[in-house]
Specification:
Number of strands: 35
Distance between the termini: 120 Å
Subcellular location: Membrane
Protein name: PASTA domain-containing protein
Helix content: 25-40%
Oligomer: single chain
Structural class: alpha+beta
Main location: membrane
Keywords: Membrane
Radius of gyration: 35 Å
Family: Belongs to the transpeptidase family.
Largest sheet: 7 strands, mixed
Length: 762
């Protein structure tokens, strides 16, 4: 018995001794061996770290008008657990679908989607989820829709007899979002950032490191409940906001490009359209546009990925006759071009190939200058192959930069392709077909060399990197001369010949681009296409192009236009009608906007003055006022009924452009309704509102598409919705009298705003 007791005591004592040894060892291990690691883990739990997001830099045009900016956005979230407790899933699905829908057609599917989100459970199915985002429809929405959601929440709270502070399962989280106020304007230049804030295309991607900035951080110590400790250590590293970027483009000229392309697209339905506008002296890009286009605010709505492609730099094509500038400039530089020398047009044989003029039979024996005006292929085969010779022709093609990229500061540029081997390939290259494939930006740089005195310039679109705090440039990009391709004398001579292509109204292929008041140099191009799967040129598919600049004596703007496969009904003779009107509209509007004065022309009678002084129409009869306006060359509109003029806009003595509209009132303007402004430009709409003493709110940009007026007398107000001409809902007003449908800048230099208030005239 005593032995059993002693044995039991020994076992119990040994157990407790071993236990204490283990505990002491564990304490030692924790306090000594693992001390630093555990302390680090504890500090991580005690500290709260918060990432401070930087503000992404703004992208601006050359006049500091905003093209892309960081803005506030809102995301709608659902709490299925709360929604289930209130039994309102169906009501919430219907209400939110009505607000967030893209259209009535999409509402049923969206309602089903929101109902599923409102009843979602956790992955393990144990309980309802707590926080679910409505993507994409309720993700990073604008303030207007967010306010509608808040109103819906308030309505639901009232229906459920809940206070305004009661959570009914719908939340609105504030976030950051990239916003493009011009919508489709310059979209291929800008690209976009996706909803996660990552740059995905265009300059947003190319300049991402410059724009995105550096994140900051905030950390502090907290207790177990997450409350900051009184004497806690706080570490704060401020975020470094991204730099702003000032581009060379001009928002107004960009608008002119896109408006003109929209008209061409509506009339000729090409596969795609491309436009580039540059200052030929510096090769600064003033505008660059493509159709089809897209809205970077809603990039996910794009139907075809090819619509994201910037064809101005990322597509290449056989240029056709616009490429003849290389052959022309080369022969002029070498002293081989005699404009009065005669040759037989129609057909020429090169080895075993017959090459024809575009009308196949030619025009008999004509001069080389007439061959240029008529865009004769035979003339340029003889000039390039017989006079210039193959080696020199290839040398000039390379001098003009067609064998390499321009290295424009934009992403995804492709190179041209120059691959002539046989005499027949050199022959077709003289007029831009066969083994010469180029890009629009290469062609633009080549023509700019003729406009600026023979210098091939580096095309660029970024003007300055700007400090967001001081507004001062951190880095600037000056124009760069790549090389002198021809002499200044040769460039001037070629410009003179290209001017005759436009000014000769009898045989010039570019005659439809002639502009009264401005000397224009230019060249047309019509290139047959080899369609996919075919080995020979198509007989009814073409790439139509026009490149020109003005004024010839001091070029301010050069515009390249390309239409891929417009619907010509099989008649290539219509090619000259496709782009010339667009060129005239773009260049005419741009030169007036730049303040370039018109000049007299020898071949056309042109008004000498571009500015007029408004006469005094007050107390005149309607007929007398009309006669006075006609005599002064003014556009004129009369409103109301009465015997004498009671009011006019602008006031007598005001100096205006000859294209500006004059308003005459035969009775008190406050007694007359605001006229229909649908189809009017922003400038015309603003002037009309001012004249009729109506407070106008405008949204969007472009032309008036919708109009709503409220109130009476001098308390009237109107809301005008503006949309680009590319929007099919916009129809130009029949009363427009301006020489161009593009807007003319207002005195503050703006042609459109995202949100404007137009006050009554004093």
């Amino acid at each position: 018995m005593t032995k059993k007791i002693k044995l039991r005591s020994l076992l119990i004592g040994g157990f407790f001794t071993l236990l204490f040894v283990v505990l002491i060892a564990k304490v030692y291990w924790i306090q000594v061996v693992d001390a630093s690691w555990l302390l680090g883990q504890a500090e991580q739990r005690w500290e709260t770290d918060r990432i401070i997001a930087p503000v992404r830099g703004t992208i601006m045009d050359r006049n500091d008008k905003v093209l892309a900016v960081e803005g506030t956005a809102y995301t709608v979230t659902l709490n299925p657990k709360m929604i289930d407790s209130l039994h309102v899933a169906d009501d919430i699905a219907r209400g939110l679908a009505d607000i967030l829908k893209e259209s009535d057609a999409t509402k049923p599917a969206l309602e089903t989607k929101i109902r599923e989100l409102a009843t979602r459970k956790k992955p393990d199915g144990s309980d309802f989820a707590v926080n679910v985002e409505i993507r994409n429809e309720g993700w990073k929405i604008d303030k207007e829709k967010a306010d509608q959601v808040r109103d819906f929440i308030a309505t639901m709270q009232t229906r459920l007899n809940k206070s305004s502070k009661t959570n009914i399962g719908i939340g609105i989280a504030e976030e950051k979002k990239r916003y493009y106020p011009g919508e489709t304007l310059a979209s291929h230049i800008l690209g976009y950032t996706n909803k996660e804030g990552k740059a995905a295309l265009g300059l947003e991607l190319k300049l991402d490191d410059t724009l995105k900035g550096v994140p900051g951080s905030l950390s502090y110590e907290k207790d177990g409940k997450g409350v900051e400790l009184p004497d806690a250590k706080v570490n704060f590293k401020p975020a470094e906001d991204g730099s702003n970027v000032r581009l060379t483009i001009d928002k107004n000229i960009q608008f002119y490009l896109e408006s003109a392309l929209a008209k061409v697209n509506d009339k000729w339905h090409p596969k795609s359209l491309t436009a580039i506008a540059v200052d030929p002296k510096t090769m600064e890009i003033l505008g660059m546009a493509n159709t089809p286009t897209f809205n970077p605010n809603k990039y996910w709505n794009i139907k075809d990925q090819s619509d994201f492609k910037n064809n101005a730099i990322a597509s290449r094509y056989e240029p056709g006759s616009t490429f003849k500038i290389v052959t022309l400039a080369g022969t002029v530089e070498e002293g081989l071009f005699n404009p009065n020398e005669m040759y037989q047009s129609g057909m020429i044989r090169v080895q075993d190939r017959e090459l024809h003029d575009h009308n196949r039979v030619g025009w008999g024996k004509i001069s080389y200058l007439d061959g240029l005006k008529r865009s004769s292929n035979v003339a340029f085969v003889k000039l390039g192959l017989e006079k210039l010779t193959q080696p020199k022709l290839k040398s000039y093609i390379e001098k003009f930069g067609f064998a390499e990229k321009t290295n424009i500061d934009m992403p995804n540029e492709v190179s041209g392709l120059i691959d002539m081997r046989y005499p027949s390939e050199y022959a077709t290259a003289t007029y831009g077909q066969g083994k010469v494939v180029v890009t629009a930006i290469q062609q633009t740089a080549a023509y700019a060399a003729m406009a600026n005195g023979g210098k091939l310039m580096w095309p660029h679109i970024v003007k300055d990197i700007v400090d967001p705090k001081t507004g001062k440039p951190i880095q600037s990009f000056a124009p760069q001369v790549i090389r002198q391709v021809v002499s200044e004398k040769t460039a001037a001579t070629v410009s003179g010949y290209l001017e005759q292509v436009v000014s000769d109204q009898e045989i010039g292929t570019g005659k439809l681009a002639f502009m009264e008041g401005y000397r224009v140099a230019g060249k047309t191009g019509t290139a047959n296409l080899v369609l996919p799967g075919e080995k020979t040129y198509s007989t009814n598919s073409w790439v139509i192009s026009f490149i020109g600049y003005a004024p010839v004596e001091d070029p301010k703007i050069l515009v390249t236009l390309i239409a891929d496969q417009p619907d010509l009904g099989g008649n290539y003779h219509l090619g000259g009608q496709v782009l010339a009107p667009a060129f005239k509209e773009i260049v005419g509007s741009s030169l007036q906007y730049m303040g370039v004065k018109t000049t007299k022309q020898t071949q056309m009678v042109v008004k000498e003055a571009n500015k007029l002084t408004v006469p005094n129409f007050m107390d005149m009869s309607s007929e007398s006022a009309k006669a006075a306006a006609k005599e002064s060359g003014l556009s004129f509109e009369v409103f109301g009924k009465g015997e004498k003029v009671m009011d006019q806009f602008p006031k007598a003595g005001t100096e205006i452009l000859s294209t500006q509209r004059i308003y005459i009132a035969m009775q008190n303007v406050s007694e007359m309704p605001l006229p229909n402004l649908v189809g009017r430009s922003l400038r015309d709409a603003v002037e009309a509102c001012s004249f009729f003493k109506v407070d106008c709110q405008t949204s969007g940009e472009g032309y008036v598409s919708e109009q709503a007026t409220t109130g009476e007398g001098e308390g009237r107000s109107a809301t005008l919705q503006l949309k680009p001409l590319s929007d099919k809902s916009v129809t130009l007003g029949t009363q427009a009298t301006s020489s161009s449908d593009a807007p003319t800048p207002t005195p503050n230099g703006k042609t459109e705003t995202q949100r404007n208030t137009v006050k009554k005239s004093p």
